[in-house]
Structure prediction request, 229 residues.
Amino acid sequence: AQSVTQPDIHITVSEGASLELRCNYSYGATPYLFWYVQSPGQGLQLLLKYFSGDTLVQGIKGFEAEFKRSQSSFNLRKPSVHWSDAAEYFCAVGLNTGFQKLVFGTGTRLLVSP
Amino acid sequence: DAGVTQSPTHLIKTRGQQVTLRCSPKSGHDTVSWYQQALGQGPQFIFQYYEEEERQRGNFPDRFSGHQFPNYSSELNVNALLLGDSALYLCASSLGQGRDYQPQHFGDGTRLSIL
Prediction:
């Protein structure tokens, strides 16, 4: 069965420091991979997506992610974190078996310290 | 360009009651998916509607049902509410079936609390 693992429940980063959020997936075919961000009381906003091609993808708000097939990973990175980046981050696998559906990880809560 | 809109934003019900949640998809989108997000968890897929039919269903009981209208808007109905149904219910819209994968766009959700 398809699954997504985000091993870090919480991460605290100092403002201005770099960030890496981990994501590992289990899926038999070539995955469609996504990172979404959720601020408190809000829905999910798409940060970036990987469908094919260049394994380093750029997203909004200065985020990037790298797809590594050999490690089944799709880690999210940002070189310099801002206080406004504090939120919950979800990695997801998109299953396109004719009907599109997302399987999410349990999320990583990012805290930004001054 | 309006995004995905959901109503109501908050709802309080008691056990055994029934509830209907509503979703209008992003302009131009024809597919609506519903997800349940329990506190501290990632969203879980409930079902997806396309061409007014339920196309795929997650691991949810028959108490959860839905509908899609000709204008692509959708409703999620939950009968015989249980305490465990308390969650944020998210609607997502996308374009097309069987085409190149299209990202899903989410609304802000309906927070359902069961007393």
Remarks:
- Chain B is about 0% helix and 50% strand.
- Chain B has a mean pLDDT of 93.
